[in-house]
Design brief:
alpha+beta, 3 strands
Length: about 150
């Protein structure tokens, strides 16, 4: 009786296959994380209509070149973490007004960058958060005069 180890070729772990993450998967993760980051800002979240709370994400993923990563020091751990490549993202959000727009955009940038690094193993080389629309409390009432 031969064991499974006898049948398996002696190929080093880092040379066995490859992992790729599709652009749309990175975009879905980024949209989910951005929505979570914005949900913490209750003064803004209550003003945005339910159909417009999901951020729109455009992404471009650059695959990492094949690397021979061995060892357990800090440098090789950082290389292993970025082994799947780099992501460039543009996230469009709609926010309530008045609110702290800068803090909300910073929270989106921070959370998306951190979670893509930990969940997917991808570095974010460029992340643009753009505010596409502000929803004012005064804009919801159609019978009132326009606010200038």
């Amino acid at each position: 009786m031969t064991g499974e180890a006898d049948r398996r070729p002696a190929v080093p772990r880092e040379e066995r296959g490859a992992i790729t993450v599709a652009d749309r998967v990175v975009a879905k993760i980024a949209a989910h994380v951005a929505r979570e980051a914005l949900s913490g800002f209750t003064e803004s979240a209550g003003r945005v209509p339910p159909g417009r709370r999901t951020p729109r994400v455009n992404t471009s993923v650059r695959r990492a070149p094949g690397r021979n990563i061995a060892g357990r020091d800090a440098e090789s751990a950082a290389l292993r973490q970025a082994a799947l490549g780099e992501a460039r993202l543009r996230i469009g959000v709609e926010l309530g007004y008045p609110s702290d727009i800068g803090a909300q955009c910073a929270a989106v940038r921070r959370e998306v960058t951190e979670r893509l690094r930990t969940w997917v193993g991808m570095n974010v080389s460029d992340l643009v958060v753009s505010v596409e629309r502000l929803h004012s409390v005064h804009g919801r009432h159609k019978d009132q005069e326009r606010v200038r």
